[in-house]
């Protein structure tokens, strides 16, 4: 089994869509952990509503391409994700495989580890929470050092919401067919 990490973000009905995405993931793979969920301002778009961002840890035997195209994209599609040329457009959900074991790759439209971990606190800090001893493959940098040097201003922890997600996951709510509609 490979230890992998998926980033989750939403700024359209984020409370509902992040929960539904986590539930969908839990129904398809072994969900190991859920980081703190942070409310963050939209990048370069102050007029947009804020995002809910977190990282989840899974254990999987599926290869990265299968995770991206067989798991993450279908969840995004089911939640109404519309891809446009605008990289910073509002979105119902954004799911990205950001770390896959100790694999470093850049092919088939997948870069691992995701290079944005090095510059985006809403990726690095939740990743550090789940894997404090992680060393990013290909970069030879410890996530602890990356997270420590990134500014945390503009990141508000949503402690009650994150606690609810973790409790529901631990109770097997999603596996029992629970719905967040």
Strand content of the residues, in percent? 25-35%
In the CATH hierarchy, the third-tier topology of the domain at 2-101 and 152-170 is known as Alpha-Beta Plaits
| First-residue to last-residue Cα separation | 32 Å
Rg, Å, rounded: 15 Å
Residues in helix, %: 25-40%
Tell the overall outline: globular
Q: Describe it for me?
A:
With 181 residues, the chain is an alpha+beta fold. It has a domain at 2-101 and 152-170: Alpha-Beta Plaits (2-Layer Sandwich), CATH 3.30.70.560. Helices cover 33% and strands 26% of the residues. The chain has 5 helices and 10 strands, in the order βαβββαβββαββαβα. It has helices spanning 14-28, 64-78, 121-130, 143-149, 159-170, and strands at residues 2-10, 30-34, 38-40, 51-60, 94-100, 105-107, 110-112, 135-136, 141-142, 155-157. The strands form 3 sheets. Strands 1, 2, 3, 4, 5 and 10 form a 6-stranded antiparallel beta sheet that branches. A two-stranded antiparallel sheet has the order 6-7. Strand 6 and strand 7 form a beta hairpin. Helix 1 (14-28) packs across helix 2 and helix 3 (121-130) crosses helix 4 (143-149). It is globular, with a radius of gyration of 15 Å. The N and C termini lie far apart (32 Å). Residues 176-181 have low confidence and may be disordered.
């Amino acid at each position: 089994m490979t230890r992998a990490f998926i980033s989750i973000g939403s700024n359209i009905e984020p409370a509902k869509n992040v929960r539904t995405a986590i539930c969908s993931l839990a129904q398809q793979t072994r969900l190991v952990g859920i980081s703190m969920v942070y409310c963050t301002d939209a990048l370069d778009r102050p007029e947009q509503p804020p995002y809910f961002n977190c990282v989840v840890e899974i254990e999987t035997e599926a290869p990265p391409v299968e995770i991206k195209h067989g798991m993450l994209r279908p969840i995004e599609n089911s939640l109404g994700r519309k891809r446009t040329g605008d990289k910073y457009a509002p979105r119902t959900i954004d799911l990205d495989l950001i770390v896959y074991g100790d694999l470093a790759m850049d092919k088939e439209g997948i870069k691992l580890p995701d290079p944005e971990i090095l510059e985006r606190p809403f990726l690095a800090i939740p990743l550090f929470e789940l894997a404090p001893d992680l060393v990013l493959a290909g970069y030879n940098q410890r996530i602890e050092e990356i997270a420590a040097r990134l500014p945390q201003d503009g990141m508000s922890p949503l402690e009650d919401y994150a606690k609810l997600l973790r409790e529901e996951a631990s109770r097997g709510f999603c596996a029992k067919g629970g719905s967040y509609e």
